[in-house]
Amino acid sequence: MAAGLRDQYLPALDAVRAAARPGETSAGWLAAERSDFVRFNRGRVRQCGTVERATLELRLIAGDRQARRTLTLCGVAAEDRARVAAGFDWLRAAIGRSGPDPWLCFSPVPSASLALERALLPGADEAVDAVRAAAGDADLVGFHASGPLARGFASSLGHAHWHEADAWFFDHSIHVGEGQAVKATLAGGDWSAQRVAGSVRDARAQAALLRRPALQLAPGSHRSYLAPAAVAELLGLLAWDGFSARAHRSGHASLARLRSGAAALDARVRIAEDLAQARAPRFQADGFTRPARAALVDGGRFDGWLVSPRSGREFGLDDNGAADAECPEALSMAGGGLPGAQALARLGTGVAIGNLWYLNFSDREACRITGMTRFASFWVEDGVAVAPIAPMRFDDSVYRMLGEALEDLTSEAVPIPDTDSYEGRRSGSITAPGALLSGLALTL
Protein backbone atom coordinates (compact mmCIF):
# COMPACT_ATOMS: atom_id res chain seq x y z
CA MET A 1 0.00 0.00 0.00
CA ALA A 2 2.72 2.47 0.97
CA ALA A 3 4.57 2.16 -2.32
CA GLY A 4 2.01 3.02 -4.93
CA LEU A 5 0.41 6.46 -5.23
CA ARG A 6 3.37 8.53 -6.33
CA ASP A 7 4.58 6.14 -9.02
CA GLN A 8 1.03 5.59 -10.19
CA TYR A 9 -0.06 9.20 -10.67
CA LEU A 10 3.12 11.16 -11.41
CA PRO A 11 2.76 10.46 -15.17
CA ALA A 12 -0.43 12.55 -15.19
CA LEU A 13 1.42 15.49 -13.63
CA ASP A 14 4.24 15.04 -16.15
CA ALA A 15 1.60 15.37 -18.88
CA VAL A 16 0.37 18.60 -17.28
CA ARG A 17 3.87 20.07 -17.37
CA ALA A 18 4.19 19.28 -21.06
CA ALA A 19 0.74 20.47 -22.12
CA ALA A 20 1.31 24.21 -22.52
CA ARG A 21 1.66 25.83 -25.93
CA PRO A 22 3.36 29.19 -26.60
CA GLY A 23 1.61 31.91 -24.62
CA GLU A 24 0.00 29.43 -22.22
CA THR A 25 0.64 28.20 -18.70
CA SER A 26 -0.66 24.75 -17.80
CA ALA A 27 -1.08 23.54 -14.23
CA GLY A 28 -2.64 20.64 -12.35
CA TRP A 29 -3.69 19.97 -8.76
CA LEU A 30 -3.95 16.28 -7.89
CA ALA A 31 -5.72 14.61 -4.96
CA ALA A 32 -5.38 10.85 -4.52
CA GLU A 33 -6.08 8.23 -1.88
CA ARG A 34 -6.13 4.51 -1.39
CA SER A 35 -8.34 3.72 1.58
CA ASP A 36 -9.37 0.62 3.45
CA PHE A 37 -12.62 1.37 5.25
CA VAL A 38 -14.82 -0.50 7.68
CA ARG A 39 -18.18 0.57 9.08
CA PHE A 40 -19.36 -0.97 12.35
CA ASN A 41 -22.81 -1.28 13.89
CA ARG A 42 -23.49 -3.00 17.21
CA GLY A 43 -19.81 -3.85 17.36
CA ARG A 44 -19.88 -5.90 14.17
CA VAL A 45 -18.85 -5.23 10.58
CA ARG A 46 -21.63 -3.80 8.44
CA GLN A 47 -19.65 -2.63 5.40
CA CYS A 48 -16.04 -2.85 4.31
CA GLY A 49 -13.94 -2.40 1.21
CA THR A 50 -11.08 -0.55 -0.44
CA VAL A 51 -11.43 2.67 -2.42
CA GLU A 52 -8.83 4.12 -4.75
CA ARG A 53 -9.61 7.56 -6.11
CA ALA A 54 -7.63 10.25 -7.87
CA THR A 55 -8.82 13.55 -9.32
CA LEU A 56 -6.83 16.12 -11.23
CA GLU A 57 -7.93 19.75 -11.60
CA LEU A 58 -6.49 21.11 -14.83
CA ARG A 59 -5.90 24.83 -15.20
CA LEU A 60 -5.04 26.75 -18.36
CA ILE A 61 -3.89 30.38 -18.20
CA ALA A 62 -3.50 32.62 -21.21
CA GLY A 63 -2.83 36.29 -20.50
CA ASP A 64 -5.44 37.51 -18.02
CA ARG A 65 -7.86 34.63 -18.69
CA GLN A 66 -8.08 31.21 -17.18
CA ALA A 67 -10.22 28.08 -17.34
CA ARG A 68 -10.36 24.93 -15.20
CA ARG A 69 -11.61 21.39 -15.55
CA THR A 70 -11.49 18.41 -13.19
CA LEU A 71 -10.73 14.88 -14.38
CA THR A 72 -10.89 11.48 -12.74
CA LEU A 73 -7.70 9.48 -13.24
CA CYS A 74 -7.47 5.73 -13.62
CA GLY A 75 -3.82 5.20 -12.68
CA VAL A 76 -2.84 3.77 -16.08
CA ALA A 77 -0.15 6.10 -17.42
CA ALA A 78 -1.05 6.04 -21.11
CA GLU A 79 -4.75 6.50 -20.49
CA ASP A 80 -4.22 9.29 -17.96
CA ARG A 81 -1.94 11.16 -20.38
CA ALA A 82 -4.65 10.93 -23.02
CA ARG A 83 -7.23 12.28 -20.56
CA VAL A 84 -4.97 15.20 -19.68
CA ALA A 85 -4.38 16.05 -23.35
CA ALA A 86 -8.11 15.93 -24.10
CA GLY A 87 -8.79 18.04 -21.01
CA PHE A 88 -6.49 20.81 -22.17
CA ASP A 89 -8.03 20.73 -25.65
CA TRP A 90 -11.39 21.35 -23.98
CA LEU A 91 -9.92 24.19 -21.90
CA ARG A 92 -8.49 25.88 -25.00
CA ALA A 93 -11.96 25.97 -26.50
CA ALA A 94 -13.43 27.29 -23.25
CA ILE A 95 -10.84 29.95 -22.42
CA GLY A 96 -11.70 31.96 -25.50
CA ARG A 97 -15.20 32.42 -24.08
CA SER A 98 -13.91 33.40 -20.64
CA GLY A 99 -13.76 36.99 -19.46
CA PRO A 100 -10.61 38.56 -18.03
CA ASP A 101 -9.93 37.80 -14.37
CA PRO A 102 -8.65 40.98 -12.67
CA TRP A 103 -7.37 39.08 -9.62
CA LEU A 104 -5.81 36.13 -11.43
CA CYS A 105 -2.81 35.06 -9.42
CA PHE A 106 -0.29 32.30 -10.06
CA SER A 107 3.21 31.84 -8.74
CA PRO A 108 5.68 32.81 -11.48
CA VAL A 109 8.58 31.29 -9.54
CA PRO A 110 8.92 27.52 -9.97
CA SER A 111 9.38 25.49 -6.81
CA ALA A 112 9.59 21.83 -5.91
CA SER A 113 9.14 19.65 -2.86
CA LEU A 114 8.80 15.99 -1.95
CA ALA A 115 7.38 14.75 1.34
CA LEU A 116 6.71 11.04 1.96
CA GLU A 117 5.49 10.52 5.52
CA ARG A 118 5.14 6.87 6.38
CA ALA A 119 3.39 5.26 9.33
CA LEU A 120 2.49 1.77 10.47
CA LEU A 121 -1.01 1.11 9.17
CA PRO A 122 -3.23 -1.88 9.93
CA GLY A 123 -4.66 -4.30 7.47
CA ALA A 124 -8.44 -4.33 7.39
CA ASP A 125 -8.58 -7.70 9.19
CA GLU A 126 -6.30 -6.40 11.94
CA ALA A 127 -8.46 -3.32 12.46
CA VAL A 128 -11.65 -5.39 12.56
CA ASP A 129 -10.19 -7.82 15.10
CA ALA A 130 -9.05 -4.96 17.36
CA VAL A 131 -12.41 -3.18 17.29
CA ARG A 132 -14.50 -6.32 17.79
CA ALA A 133 -12.38 -7.43 20.72
CA ALA A 134 -12.67 -4.01 22.36
CA ALA A 135 -16.41 -3.64 21.70
CA GLY A 136 -17.46 -6.91 23.24
CA ASP A 137 -21.24 -6.86 23.68
CA ALA A 138 -21.48 -3.03 23.54
CA ASP A 139 -23.52 -1.25 20.87
CA LEU A 140 -20.53 0.28 19.11
CA VAL A 141 -21.09 2.30 15.95
CA GLY A 142 -17.97 3.39 14.14
CA PHE A 143 -16.03 4.15 10.99
CA HIS A 144 -12.41 3.17 10.41
CA ALA A 145 -10.39 4.41 7.43
CA SER A 146 -6.73 3.81 6.68
CA GLY A 147 -4.29 4.30 3.82
CA PRO A 148 -2.11 6.82 2.01
CA LEU A 149 -3.33 10.30 1.09
CA ALA A 150 -1.53 12.30 -1.59
CA ARG A 151 -1.57 15.82 -3.02
CA GLY A 152 0.47 16.90 -6.00
CA PHE A 153 0.97 20.04 -8.05
CA ALA A 154 2.78 20.66 -11.32
CA SER A 155 2.96 23.40 -13.94
CA SER A 156 4.62 24.19 -17.23
CA LEU A 157 6.67 26.84 -15.39
CA GLY A 158 8.49 24.08 -13.53
CA HIS A 159 6.51 23.58 -10.32
CA ALA A 160 6.80 20.01 -9.04
CA HIS A 161 5.32 19.22 -5.63
CA TRP A 162 4.28 15.95 -4.05
CA HIS A 163 3.03 15.25 -0.53
CA GLU A 164 2.03 11.75 0.56
CA ALA A 165 1.20 10.67 4.10
CA ASP A 166 0.00 7.39 5.56
CA ALA A 167 -2.98 8.11 7.80
CA TRP A 168 -5.77 6.38 9.71
CA PHE A 169 -8.65 7.30 11.98
CA PHE A 170 -11.26 5.48 14.00
CA ASP A 171 -14.42 7.46 14.74
CA HIS A 172 -16.71 5.62 17.13
CA SER A 173 -19.49 5.90 19.67
CA ILE A 174 -21.05 3.63 22.29
CA HIS A 175 -24.86 3.83 22.32
CA VAL A 176 -27.09 3.03 25.28
CA GLY A 177 -30.51 3.76 23.79
CA GLU A 178 -32.86 6.76 23.82
CA GLY A 179 -30.39 8.85 21.83
CA GLN A 180 -27.65 8.60 24.45
CA ALA A 181 -24.09 7.86 23.37
CA VAL A 182 -20.42 8.50 24.08
CA LYS A 183 -18.37 9.57 21.08
CA ALA A 184 -14.59 9.49 20.54
CA THR A 185 -12.15 9.80 17.64
CA LEU A 186 -8.64 8.42 17.33
CA ALA A 187 -6.04 9.21 14.67
CA GLY A 188 -2.43 9.90 13.94
CA GLY A 189 0.93 8.16 14.13
CA ASP A 190 1.42 4.42 13.95
CA TRP A 191 -1.62 2.19 14.35
CA SER A 192 -2.09 0.91 17.89
CA ALA A 193 -4.63 -1.74 18.82
CA GLN A 194 -3.92 -0.81 22.45
CA ARG A 195 -5.01 2.80 21.84
CA VAL A 196 -8.21 1.58 20.20
CA ALA A 197 -8.93 -0.76 23.10
CA GLY A 198 -8.27 2.02 25.64
CA SER A 199 -10.53 4.49 23.84
CA VAL A 200 -13.40 2.01 23.61
CA ARG A 201 -12.91 1.01 27.25
CA ASP A 202 -13.14 4.65 28.36
CA ALA A 203 -16.25 5.18 26.22
CA ARG A 204 -17.92 2.10 27.71
CA ALA A 205 -17.21 3.38 31.22
CA GLN A 206 -18.84 6.72 30.44
CA ALA A 207 -21.74 4.97 28.70
CA ALA A 208 -22.56 3.20 31.96
CA LEU A 209 -23.25 6.64 33.50
CA LEU A 210 -25.63 7.47 30.66
CA ARG A 211 -28.00 4.74 31.88
CA ARG A 212 -28.78 6.84 34.93
CA PRO A 213 -31.80 9.21 34.78
CA ALA A 214 -30.90 12.42 32.96
CA LEU A 215 -30.83 15.68 34.91
CA GLN A 216 -32.63 18.67 33.40
CA LEU A 217 -30.67 21.79 34.27
CA ALA A 218 -32.28 25.16 34.80
CA PRO A 219 -31.29 27.81 32.24
CA GLY A 220 -28.52 30.11 33.40
CA SER A 221 -24.76 30.34 33.72
CA HIS A 222 -23.19 27.06 34.82
CA ARG A 223 -19.60 26.34 35.75
CA SER A 224 -18.40 24.10 32.92
CA TYR A 225 -15.59 22.00 31.54
CA LEU A 226 -15.43 21.68 27.75
CA ALA A 227 -13.59 18.56 26.59
CA PRO A 228 -11.12 18.95 23.69
CA ALA A 229 -13.72 17.74 21.17
CA ALA A 230 -16.12 20.49 22.30
CA VAL A 231 -13.41 23.15 22.07
CA ALA A 232 -12.53 21.85 18.61
CA GLU A 233 -16.15 22.40 17.54
CA LEU A 234 -15.90 26.04 18.63
CA LEU A 235 -12.63 26.50 16.76
CA GLY A 236 -14.11 24.84 13.69
CA LEU A 237 -16.88 27.45 13.57
CA LEU A 238 -14.36 30.28 13.95
CA ALA A 239 -12.45 28.77 11.02
CA TRP A 240 -15.35 29.58 8.66
CA ASP A 241 -14.30 33.22 8.37
CA GLY A 242 -12.55 34.33 11.54
CA PHE A 243 -9.03 34.16 10.12
CA SER A 244 -9.75 35.02 6.49
CA ALA A 245 -8.20 38.24 5.18
CA ARG A 246 -10.95 38.49 2.57
CA ALA A 247 -13.65 38.17 5.23
CA HIS A 248 -12.03 40.86 7.36
CA ARG A 249 -11.57 43.25 4.45
CA SER A 250 -15.15 42.56 3.29
CA GLY A 251 -16.56 43.33 6.75
CA HIS A 252 -18.11 40.01 7.74
CA ALA A 253 -15.41 38.24 9.78
CA SER A 254 -16.53 36.78 13.10
CA LEU A 255 -13.29 37.88 14.78
CA ALA A 256 -13.37 41.45 13.47
CA ARG A 257 -13.44 42.92 16.98
CA LEU A 258 -10.44 40.83 17.98
CA ARG A 259 -8.47 42.12 15.02
CA SER A 260 -9.44 45.76 15.65
CA GLY A 261 -8.49 45.51 19.31
CA ALA A 262 -12.04 46.22 20.48
CA ALA A 263 -12.09 42.77 22.13
CA ALA A 264 -9.49 40.38 23.47
CA LEU A 265 -9.23 36.79 24.65
CA ASP A 266 -7.44 35.47 27.71
CA ALA A 267 -3.67 35.92 27.45
CA ARG A 268 -3.21 32.13 27.54
CA VAL A 269 -5.05 31.68 24.24
CA ARG A 270 -2.64 30.92 21.40
CA ILE A 271 -3.92 29.68 18.05
CA ALA A 272 -1.97 28.88 14.88
CA GLU A 273 -2.27 27.21 11.52
CA ASP A 274 0.21 24.38 12.06
CA LEU A 275 0.68 22.42 8.84
CA ALA A 276 3.79 20.63 10.07
CA GLN A 277 2.07 19.22 13.14
CA ALA A 278 -0.89 18.02 11.07
CA ARG A 279 1.33 16.49 8.35
CA ALA A 280 -0.50 18.59 5.75
CA PRO A 281 0.86 19.75 2.35
CA ARG A 282 3.06 22.84 2.33
CA PHE A 283 1.95 24.00 -1.12
CA GLN A 284 -1.34 25.00 -2.73
CA ALA A 285 -3.14 25.07 -6.07
CA ASP A 286 -1.74 28.42 -7.28
CA GLY A 287 1.84 27.17 -7.06
CA PHE A 288 2.72 29.05 -3.89
CA THR A 289 4.40 27.41 -0.90
CA ARG A 290 3.09 27.75 2.63
CA PRO A 291 4.87 28.26 5.96
CA ALA A 292 5.04 25.32 8.34
CA ARG A 293 3.32 27.43 10.99
CA ALA A 294 1.42 30.72 10.90
CA ALA A 295 0.45 32.44 14.16
CA LEU A 296 -3.16 33.64 14.26
CA VAL A 297 -3.80 34.52 17.91
CA ASP A 298 -1.02 35.06 20.44
CA GLY A 299 -1.43 36.19 24.02
CA GLY A 300 -5.17 36.52 23.41
CA ARG A 301 -4.58 39.11 20.65
CA PHE A 302 -5.06 38.81 16.91
CA ASP A 303 -1.63 38.07 15.47
CA GLY A 304 -2.21 37.20 11.82
CA TRP A 305 -4.65 36.11 9.18
CA LEU A 306 -4.71 33.75 6.25
CA VAL A 307 -4.11 35.57 2.99
CA SER A 308 -4.52 33.80 -0.32
CA PRO A 309 -2.50 35.11 -3.28
CA ARG A 310 -5.78 36.22 -4.85
CA SER A 311 -6.77 38.26 -1.79
CA GLY A 312 -3.24 39.61 -1.59
CA ARG A 313 -3.57 40.98 -5.08
CA GLU A 314 -7.11 42.28 -4.58
CA PHE A 315 -6.46 44.03 -1.27
CA GLY A 316 -2.76 44.87 -1.59
CA LEU A 317 -1.65 42.46 1.15
CA ASP A 318 1.35 40.19 1.56
CA ASP A 319 0.04 36.66 1.10
CA ASN A 320 1.10 33.63 3.12
CA GLY A 321 0.10 31.00 0.58
CA ALA A 322 -3.37 30.27 1.97
CA ALA A 323 -5.83 28.44 -0.25
CA ASP A 324 -8.57 30.45 -1.95
CA ALA A 325 -11.09 29.68 0.81
CA GLU A 326 -8.70 31.09 3.46
CA CYS A 327 -9.96 28.53 5.99
CA PRO A 328 -7.44 26.88 8.30
CA GLU A 329 -6.68 23.28 7.45
CA ALA A 330 -4.61 22.52 10.55
CA LEU A 331 -5.89 24.80 13.30
CA SER A 332 -4.01 24.27 16.55
CA MET A 333 -4.70 25.79 19.96
CA ALA A 334 -1.98 25.52 22.59
CA GLY A 335 -2.61 23.87 25.92
CA GLY A 336 -2.41 25.45 29.35
CA GLY A 337 -1.46 24.36 32.86
CA LEU A 338 -4.26 21.99 33.87
CA PRO A 339 -3.51 18.26 33.64
CA GLY A 340 -6.42 16.64 31.81
CA ALA A 341 -6.76 13.96 34.50
CA GLN A 342 -7.46 16.71 37.05
CA ALA A 343 -10.05 18.61 35.01
CA LEU A 344 -13.13 17.30 36.81
CA ALA A 345 -11.53 17.80 40.22
CA ARG A 346 -10.85 21.45 39.32
CA LEU A 347 -14.38 21.78 37.97
CA GLY A 348 -15.72 20.69 41.34
CA THR A 349 -19.46 21.03 40.80
CA GLY A 350 -20.80 21.90 37.37
CA VAL A 351 -21.21 20.58 33.84
CA ALA A 352 -18.72 18.47 31.87
CA ILE A 353 -19.47 18.71 28.16
CA GLY A 354 -18.00 16.06 25.85
CA ASN A 355 -19.33 17.28 22.50
CA LEU A 356 -21.21 20.16 20.91
CA TRP A 357 -23.34 20.15 17.76
CA TYR A 358 -25.53 22.35 15.57
CA LEU A 359 -23.18 25.27 16.12
CA ASN A 360 -23.87 28.56 14.38
CA PHE A 361 -23.48 32.26 15.00
CA SER A 362 -26.32 33.94 16.86
CA ASP A 363 -24.52 37.31 16.55
CA ARG A 364 -21.55 37.16 14.18
CA GLU A 365 -20.37 40.70 14.91
CA ALA A 366 -20.17 39.94 18.63
CA CYS A 367 -18.75 36.44 17.89
CA ARG A 368 -21.66 34.97 19.79
CA ILE A 369 -22.25 31.26 19.18
CA THR A 370 -25.22 29.03 19.81
CA GLY A 371 -25.37 25.25 19.76
CA MET A 372 -26.38 22.14 21.67
CA THR A 373 -24.69 19.86 24.14
CA ARG A 374 -24.40 16.37 22.73
CA PHE A 375 -23.67 12.81 23.74
CA ALA A 376 -21.60 12.43 26.91
CA SER A 377 -22.35 15.57 28.92
CA PHE A 378 -22.58 15.10 32.69
CA TRP A 379 -23.46 16.84 35.91
CA VAL A 380 -20.41 16.73 38.18
CA GLU A 381 -20.42 17.01 41.97
CA ASP A 382 -17.19 17.32 43.98
CA GLY A 383 -15.18 16.26 40.92
CA VAL A 384 -17.24 13.13 40.17
CA ALA A 385 -19.67 12.72 37.27
CA VAL A 386 -22.97 11.64 38.84
CA ALA A 387 -25.63 11.91 36.11
CA PRO A 388 -26.06 12.74 32.43
CA ILE A 389 -27.70 16.04 31.59
CA ALA A 390 -30.53 16.37 29.10
CA PRO A 391 -29.42 18.10 25.90
CA MET A 392 -29.41 21.88 26.30
CA ARG A 393 -28.80 24.87 24.09
CA PHE A 394 -26.04 27.32 24.92
CA ASP A 395 -25.67 30.88 23.63
CA ASP A 396 -22.50 32.68 24.61
CA SER A 397 -19.73 34.87 23.23
CA VAL A 398 -16.33 33.44 22.37
CA TYR A 399 -14.84 36.63 23.81
CA ARG A 400 -16.35 35.69 27.18
CA MET A 401 -15.84 31.90 27.01
CA LEU A 402 -12.17 32.21 26.04
CA GLY A 403 -11.78 35.52 27.82
CA GLU A 404 -13.04 36.51 31.26
CA ALA A 405 -14.70 33.11 31.88
CA LEU A 406 -11.62 31.03 31.05
CA GLU A 407 -10.01 29.62 34.19
CA ASP A 408 -7.53 27.26 32.56
CA LEU A 409 -6.75 25.05 29.58
CA THR A 410 -5.64 21.45 29.81
CA SER A 411 -1.94 20.88 29.26
CA GLU A 412 -2.76 18.21 26.67
CA ALA A 413 -3.99 19.41 23.28
CA VAL A 414 -5.70 16.60 21.38
CA PRO A 415 -5.71 16.30 17.56
CA ILE A 416 -9.24 15.85 16.22
CA PRO A 417 -9.04 14.64 12.60
CA ASP A 418 -11.35 15.72 9.82
CA THR A 419 -13.34 12.53 9.28
CA ASP A 420 -15.38 13.83 6.35
CA SER A 421 -15.03 11.40 3.45
CA TYR A 422 -17.87 12.55 1.18
CA GLU A 423 -15.54 13.74 -1.60
CA GLY A 424 -12.53 11.82 -0.39
CA ARG A 425 -10.56 11.71 2.85
CA ARG A 426 -9.06 14.92 4.17
CA SER A 427 -5.65 15.62 5.65
CA GLY A 428 -6.92 18.40 7.92
CA SER A 429 -7.39 18.40 11.69
CA ILE A 430 -8.06 20.65 14.66
CA THR A 431 -5.85 20.30 17.72
CA ALA A 432 -7.48 21.58 20.89
CA PRO A 433 -7.13 21.41 24.68
CA GLY A 434 -9.97 21.16 27.14
CA ALA A 435 -11.21 24.42 28.67
CA LEU A 436 -12.39 25.10 32.24
CA LEU A 437 -14.93 27.93 32.34
CA SER A 438 -16.30 29.78 35.34
CA GLY A 439 -19.62 29.90 33.51
CA LEU A 440 -21.33 28.92 30.27
CA ALA A 441 -24.71 30.39 29.37
CA LEU A 442 -27.19 27.50 28.95
CA THR A 443 -30.47 28.86 27.66
CA LEU A 444 -33.02 26.04 27.33
TrEMBL record:
Presence of the UniProt keyword Protease in the record: yes
TM segment ranges: none
Gene Ontology annotations of biological process type: proteolysis
Keywords, sorted A to Z: Hydrolase, Protease
InterPro entries linked: Metalloprtase-TldD/E_C, TldD/PmbA_sf
MF (Gene Ontology): metallopeptidase activity
Presence of keyword rRNA-binding: no
N-terminal signal peptide: none
Residue ranges of domain Metalloprotease TldD/E C-terminal in the record: 225-441
Species for this entry: Quisquiliibacterium transsilvanicum
Lineage: Bacteria, Pseudomonadati, Pseudomonadota, Betaproteobacteria, Burkholderiales
SUPFAM superfamilies named in the record: Putative modulator of DNA gyrase, PmbA/TldD (SSF111283)
Protein name per Swiss-Prot or TrEMBL: Putative Zn-dependent protease
One Pfam family this sequence matches: PmbA_TldD_3rd
Superkingdom of source: Bacteria
